[in-house]
Amino acid sequence: MTRLLPYPLLSAALLLLWLLANQTVRPGQILLGAAVALVGGWALTALQPPKARLRRPAAALRLGGRVLVDIIRSNIAVGRIVLGLNGRRERRSGFIDIPLELRDQKGLAALACIITSTPGTLWVNFDPARGTLMIHVLDLIDEEEWARTIKGRYETLLLEIFQ
Amino acid sequence: MSAAAELPVWVAILTAALVLLGAALALVGSIGLLRLRGFYDRVHAPTLGATLGAGSIALASMIYFSALETRPVLHEALILIFVAVTTPVTLMILVRAALFRDRAENDDPLLRPGEGVARLDADARDPRETRG
Amino acid sequence: MSAAILSWSLWAAQIMLALGMSCAVFRMLRGPRAQDRVLGLDTLYINAMLLLLTVGMASGRTLYFEAALIIALLGFVGTVALAKFLLRGEVIE
Fold it and tell me: What segments bear the compositional bias annotation Basic and acidic residues (chain B) (predicted)?
């Protein structure tokens, strides 16, 4: 198992991508895709990435749903800011430091993708020595509330999934 | 568009609504590129088109071609996956480059007055660490 | 009926995306700094990719999907290379 399929999840994803790109489930293409997935898995052993396991798929699904909702909400919020529909309130943007408990590399990578792909927030830097994350926020009303949002909505679930 | 005339009306309306939503979001994001002041505000603008904009147009394309060819056409999901993974990477590298360039010119945005920086010790961070 | 709805909405969407592309081109030409220009390029290629998807729907052929995928790939590589150049290139003395 480990010799033949060193990264089973990655190989499965490669096979799925192959079938999507070819738009078919014909046996011939499945065979070809399986070959590509196997070779891809072997090729990746040369890079020796840390292994990922699908722990707690329920938590991962919940996180995905949350991110989807937040992306839709913040799309609307940023759209209103751009079009000047957010009233006469003075908008302030700025950088915030947020202390994190998350240390896992993959968890941090997932958090970076989540924060950056939500419009209105942007990952700037993570300081591993102090464990603080710096983000840039387009509409900064309350620093504490942003820190609570990031920690409460994403970090707890990511901790559950990755640590 | 000859084959499109035989599509059911609800498919046409759903596709049209999704395409218009996606295009409008991409347009709003691009307008934000013009209207927002300062680079660090403008970085937020393209994410509109890259997340929900691309999502709804790709979904519309999937629905439309699946109805047109009466089989599931899902390969637009490839574009969605790719854009979802790459846009954050691009923007993060770009912000780091901008921070690095600003600091090299002694114009650290974290130290600018009125930027609303909620930080304690600004000197603790070495700008060289942003070099990958 | 369906054909009319689709052709009008796709036409409107293409105009919106073209306007978005011109905003991005304006930011590319205007600057003021190099990072703004790279950001303009990033927006430009995403809008172009979406425009190709709508063109593909208007023509009823899936051929344009491959073009959109290639634009997404090359645009990503291009903007990352440029951003990396800004990070490494000129300002270090």
Answer: 118-132
Count up the domains in chain A and report the number.
Answer: 2
The pLDDT score that the predictor gives to residue A12 is 85
Q: Quote the CA–CA distance of B57 and B53 in Å, as a whole number.
A: 6
Best of B21, B56, B74, B90 to disrupt the C interface (most C CBs within 10 Å) is B90
Q: How far apart are CA B127 and CA B99, in angstroms?
A: 8
Are residues A116 and B91 in contact, defined by beta-carbon separation less than 8 angstroms? yes
Is residue A89 domain-shared with residue A15, that is, in the same domain? Answer: no
Residue B123 — pLDDT band, cuts 50, 70, 90? Answer: very low
Structural domains in chain C, sorted by start: 2-88 (1.10.287)
Contact A37, A11 (CB under 8 A): yes
Cα C18 to Cα A105, B16, B128, C11, C89, distances in angstroms = 40, 17, 40, 11, 33
pLDDT in tens, C4-62: 888 899 999 999 999 999 999 999 998 788 889 999 999 999 999 999 999 998 888 88
Query: Does B66 touch chain A if contact means CB atoms closer than 8 Å?
Result: no
Instruction: Please indicate, yes or no, whether residues A111 and A152 belong to a single structural domain of this protein.
Output: yes
B28 vs A79, A125, A138: nearest CB:
A79
Task: Say if A3 falls within a structural domain.
Answer: no
- Nearest 10 degrees: CA dihedral of C66, C72, C77, C79? 150
Residues A139 and A71 in one domain: yes
